[in-house]
Structure to design on (654 residues):
């Protein structure tokens, strides 16, 4: 866990006081809505279909148990008893009242959380691997670097009025669990041939209306140059980014229009000016690193009998372990993913009681730490293998032990038209229907990893372009239709999905997705993921097996 | 980003003026007396564009009570009552079509 310093606490407390004053002035009429709207957005407050929505940032997806209890309190005291974890490792509360928002933000500040830079044209929450610090395949904890960037970009005047919002993701593992290629900047920490650690810099990724995968503009950047290089990129973006057209304002459009080589040259030219002025001192890195407190792991036996015997004796526990439990870098420990995707449920939603159960569990079994993944699930990052059965029993008791992590029913979905004022179609009811249908298929046919992503509009908060199957809701003459893409993925082999044809009516979608899954079952080779099958046999071969009845 | 209801205003039938209430964000509809009500059944129905335009302009200046007013279509239900004329307005009127989280 990162331990905040006094500077952070003061900054957040001052912001809460400012916002309290701004809300009071809006309610009294001293501020107009036009004046107030940018102020509320700077504090993560949107106006959605039914009420105000508060988006709370969860820096690099890491929460303490006290913070998760703090979120549960917001859900219970200020909302309707639940919250929605998003694809950006944040949480959203959908039923907030403007008059209560200052109190809610004060309660969040009390546990070191806030909503600063969760909206607006600034650098948003910097996301990373939800297994950071625990994954066996990482070369360093990516959160160190995320925290350095968070501090550097928070309220930075040059980055506060960018042409458009800006999203940075970092991975430090061989397997990219942070989807870095679909971010404005993706950072991949790795070792070069000389054994030195540095960053591959990828720029210009993003989904939405015009999806692009990020392109590498610097294969290896020493850590000392991280801040100056990021600043150079943002300066080029500030200078050349389109401010005249919101649909062309993201950096991906600039990279595309300039061409990646010219964009890289512009960045290099800017970088030369500042690289020796803005050096990331190793002492600063050491200071930030020292503020991350790591668990005091016990020396434990790997694969203890208490775990293996439990699996052998209890098929339900065994099935859950198969999906939810992953290897940890420390022998005798495991990473546990908690599915927020119950059959027929709303992807990413958790009740206040569930949050408190997970917080208590984290205190007992995971050194008080919880993570939020971009897959809208929670993680207990440091669980002793010998205690996994007890963890499972607790989760089972509160509806959090669905054994479907990574499977077709582990659907990523935005709130869609049920909550979001930008949406054209619903995401959640479709996710609910698909999860019911696919829970049966998963068990009966050993479908394996199969990722379904749903977005309720072109803004693509459900990351549909990078789902193995992506569903995008559109409106046609007042009816919900869905475009279907196949073959997308967001990991180190990132691919944008391919459209299979015209949008299909809502009541046909589940049948179409099932046909696609059955085509995969027919065509796949052992161990092959669906996008790999498509790469081998072509999307056309899958499309030929899908019959869209219009 | 532009919300769908802000993209086009076409008045081709009965409409209401709707908005979100300033202090709590709740969905509200404009009543005949210019007050804001939470039930569609109590909303004023405009049956011609001129009437809708007049009410909409009044709503736009009512900035201390509501936020983002707009014109929404309604239809006549089977029992003769006014009902929302599209899915978005149904959801605003009735709440999310998806239920709260499932808890074990």
């Amino acid at each position: 866990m990162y331990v905040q310093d006094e500077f952070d606490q003061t900054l957040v407390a001052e912001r809460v006081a400012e916002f309290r004053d701004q809300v009071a002035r809006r309610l009294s009429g001293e501020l107009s809505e036009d004046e107030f709207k940018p102020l509320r957005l700077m504090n993560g407050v949107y106006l959605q279909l039914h009420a105000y929505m508060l988006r709370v940032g969860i820096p690099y997806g890491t929460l303490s148990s006290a913070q998760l209890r703090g979120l549960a309190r917001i859900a219970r005291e200020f909302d309707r008893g639940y919250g929605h974890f998003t694809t950006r490792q944040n949480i959203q509360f959908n039923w907030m009242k403007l008059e209560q928002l200052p109190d809610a933000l004060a309660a969040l500040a009390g546990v070191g959380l806030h909503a600063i830079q969760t909206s607006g044209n600034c650098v948003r929450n910097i996301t990373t691997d939800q297994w950071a610090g625990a994954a066996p395949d990482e070369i360093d904890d990516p959160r160190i670097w995320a925290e350095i960037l968070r501090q550097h970009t928070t309220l930075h005047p040059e980055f506060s009025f960018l042409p458009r919002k800006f999203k940075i993701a970092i991975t430090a593992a061989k397997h990219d669990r942070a989807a870095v290629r679909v971010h404005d900047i993706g950072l991949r920490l790795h070792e070069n041939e000389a054994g030195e650690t540095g960053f591959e810099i990828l720029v210009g990724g993003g989904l939405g209306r015009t999806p692009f995968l990020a392109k590498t503009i610097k294969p290896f950047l020493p850590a000392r140059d991280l801040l100056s290089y990021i600043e150079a990129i943002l300066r080029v973006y500030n200078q050349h980014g389109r401010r005249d057209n919101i649909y062309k304002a993201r950096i991906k459009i600039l990279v595309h229009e300039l061409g990646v080589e010219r964009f890289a040259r512009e960045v290099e030219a800017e970088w030369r000016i500042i690289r020796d002025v803005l050096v990331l001192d190793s002492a600063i890195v050491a200071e930030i690193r020292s503020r991350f407190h790591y668990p005091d792991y016990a020396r434990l036996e790997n694969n203890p009998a208490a775990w293996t015997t439990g699996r052998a004796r209890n098929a339900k526990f065994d099935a859950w372990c198969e999906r939810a439990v992953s290897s940890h870098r420390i022998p005798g420990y495991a990473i546990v993913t908690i599915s927020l995707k119950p059959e027929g449920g709303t992807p990413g939603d958790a009740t206040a009681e569930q949050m408190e159960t997970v917080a208590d569990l984290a205190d007992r079994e995971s050194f008080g730490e919880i993570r939020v993944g971009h897959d809208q699930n929670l993680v207990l990052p440091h669980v002793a293998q010998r205690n996994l059965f007890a963890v499972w029993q607790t989760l089972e008791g509160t509806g959090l032990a669905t054994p479907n992590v990574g499977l077709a029913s582990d659907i990523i979905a935005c709130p869609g038209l049920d909550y979001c004022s930008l949406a054209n179609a619903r995401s959640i009811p479709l996710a609910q229907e698909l999860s019911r249908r696919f829970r049966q298929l998963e068990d009966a046919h050993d479908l394996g990893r199969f990722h379904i992503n749903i977005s309720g509009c072109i803004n693509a908060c459900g990351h549909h372009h990078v789902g193995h199957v992506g569903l995008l809701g559109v409106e046609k003459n007042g009816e919900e239709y869905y475009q279907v893409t196949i073959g997308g993925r967001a990991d180190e082999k990132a691919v944008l999905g391919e459209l299979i044809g015209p949008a299909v009516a809502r009541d046909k979608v589940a049948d179409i997705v099932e046909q696609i899954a059955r085509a995969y079952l027919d065509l796949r080779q052992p161990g092959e993921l669906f996008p790999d099958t498509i790469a081998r046999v072509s999307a056309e071969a899958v499309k030929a097996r899908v019959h869209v009845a219009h | 980003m532009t919300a769908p209801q802000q993209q086009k205003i076409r008045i081709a039938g009965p409409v209401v003026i709707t908005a979100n209430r300033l202090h709590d964000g709740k969905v509200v509809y404009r009543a005949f007396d210019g007050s804001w009500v939470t039930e569609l059944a109590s909303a004023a129905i405009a049956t011609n564009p001129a009437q809708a335009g007049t009410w909409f302009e009044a709503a736009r200046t009512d900035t201390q009570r509501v936020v983002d007013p707009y014109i929404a279509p309604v239809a006549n239900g089977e029992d003769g009552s006014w009902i929302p004329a599209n899915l978005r307005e149904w959801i605003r009127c009735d709440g999310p079509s998806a239920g709260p989280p499932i808890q074990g």
About this structure: Residues 108 and 312 of chain A are 43 Å apart (CA to CA). Chain A has four domains: 6-109, 134-290, 305-397, 412-543. The mean pLDDT of chain A is 96.
